[in-house]
């Protein structure tokens, strides 16, 4: 598992916090809406206590709670929809990408050096969101509401009346059988009355007097006067106040959706508030006319189900259901808490403190005591007697079922207030207030009870929490019971078929194991939970498993890579393309250049595909290129597929920038040192055309003996002409340059005589390659007769045939694994310096089906004998390395290569051409 | 019997790898490559304590310090007829055959194995499926 920002000792207490419901009157909600926040959101940044808290456990021992956090949320009466949760998690993961400039750790394992980012923020945000979006369940009480804040505003006409109305509402929600959700911890929920007072608008005196009245009615411990909105939002620009909400609201999109998707009106308000952002008036109007405190719909509920009338405005729907970062974008423009000053922040903090000290904790303490008393009285009965009576009158609680039946049910076994559940309740309460010793012993007892009753779901829940609390116990009096977790996971998954619970259990267990450096156990757990039903979860878990392997004492690099590939595959199935690409790239580091060509090709191919869909075309091209240039061991059909894919991607790249330089093509290979250059006309004795007196043609092999003969012959001729002296600057004429000839000088070519370049191609693939419009690429410096050089460099001027004419081979086929030469001619019409740079061609292949579609879109593509499926225009450079220099000492000790000027002829003016006809042969024969 | 047989060089690149043609070859490549981690783990465990001397095939590989060639065999786990003994004898055959390859004066250690005799032996081990 990758490293996390939070340690496990912080993570778990933060994941399981006391839950408090908030029920606001419309007027109170309006006051908080002035800040673009709901009441629950308003409290969110301040929900962690800054000081230690003390409470007394049932044995009257003082117990210290550190860093206590409470979670306040608006009451919603629908459990979260699995579909919406899935979508939310998906958005959270895709919204969290690795930072661009993130410095990756380098891990050296054996002969591998890997760049691995140590943290995986997408996993952490996934986990956080996952744990927060857990619905409240019947067999555990950790996220059941412990208390309810009833909030009314001081500007209300009858605040006290309003409070009793809210109180009745809460009572109705809790006790009316119409509402199965939300869940409440115990029947008599703590009610805490909060009077919101708008300092800038309200009457202070009135608020105080109402507060006095409240104190009379509900006691000083049960109510609070919270003053907010000390300034009006108009002055927001004057003073910059830190915005503690932004991080919470962006990080946690459950809250986002709560504020923006919680009612029929809020969609419009969302839209409008975006528009009205800068106009400061009327912001509240949109909110007022709706039901701001809409508790009929869970924030996670899909809107379709919450309000059918909504389905009319489709675009808004899409918008609100669109991905997280869009919501984020909408959010960043909104200034939260515009009406709050720093004093207000302090007041809210004070309020939370007060509520926890005076309201919540005494309530928890009292409840624990009550539960404890119940348990003791229950224990007072003889245990055996108790179980015996239970057996006798078993009908009431445990339905008479065979063990097999019980194992098949994950359904309810106990009514909500069953005595068996009381101990679990007590354990959960102790856990929430971080009293892990007591929690562990309660969970342990509960586990035994549940197992006796064969209540598997309940037992698994108790086992899970017993393991967690055993781990969190201070001083670690007992070893971490890993087998508890294993049993719990197995039960959740196989007996209860509840993957969500199994996943939570695995996430917790893996984190606990990680903190004990038991990486291989953690990896095994994570891998075991991957399944077909959720690709996103499987991908994330596999990735974490991969991180486990690399973090072991002796890192398992190959297992890491393999699981990364599996994770990448799952990510791509889950539609998380960026994460998939990242995973494959990480795995690539391990496979690259290690001789596992089949695997390497597969990864490269996938990287290419993914990069292409993410429009990272350059990466796609280089990945595909990789597959083709390495000596591939794939089958012909596979190679054909790779080639087609490559051509397709390449075509897209070149269409994006049609005016850019021609791309370098990787295929076919060019054996550049085998390039031969021939000056003059082809030898065609039959035509009666004038022929140069030479012994060579391109059709014959190099013959050192005859070339020596001709060289001597030429020397003799020159010496006769120069009266017996060979001039020092004499060099024998060379008509054909190849790898054996002396290429250190610029060769001379004559204007109006063709230059033939023979290029040796080799096709490394098993499929046929078709080159069309094959011609040479050149650069020409014309030499003016006026004497000064034309400065302008004409490059690649196929459009200037008056300078140099180039022959174009329209179709050139190379079969699979074949080597073949192509002869390309240039006709210089002007004198100057010519540089032959390379070849330019359309690379394509022939598909078996010979489809004709798509050809029209390709300029310069011939529909000749072969119909092309796809082709791209590109070039390859001809660069010839000269011979290794070996004359001076310096050259001998270092590796230096001389120049090779084969391809840089100087075009000279017309020269006399010595023609020999039959005579030449006679001379030879004599 | 075996569905994939691989000989891996000391530098962990494949000298020889063959799998049943009916199956996805790529899968076996990944599998064999990943299993090298387990081999590494076992070898490093061997170094620490002389455990289980009966594990001859790991033991035999170990003393030749600088030439640790690995044989990896993938078998179908549903095939219950395969016992440890059979696996052992298969490895013995593979090892003998590999030794023959190494005795070939024209074989360059570290090259891919392209011996027909070796090929035939591998085929015989893979096709023994009833």
Automatic annotation (TrEMBL), chain A:
SUPFAM superfamilies: TPR-like. Residues 301-321 are annotated as: Disordered. Transmembrane segments: none annotated. Residues 302-312 have a biased composition (Polar residues). Residues 699-916 form the TPPC8 first Ig-like domain. This is Trafficking protein particle complex subunit 8. It comes from Homo sapiens (Human). The gene is TRAPPC8.
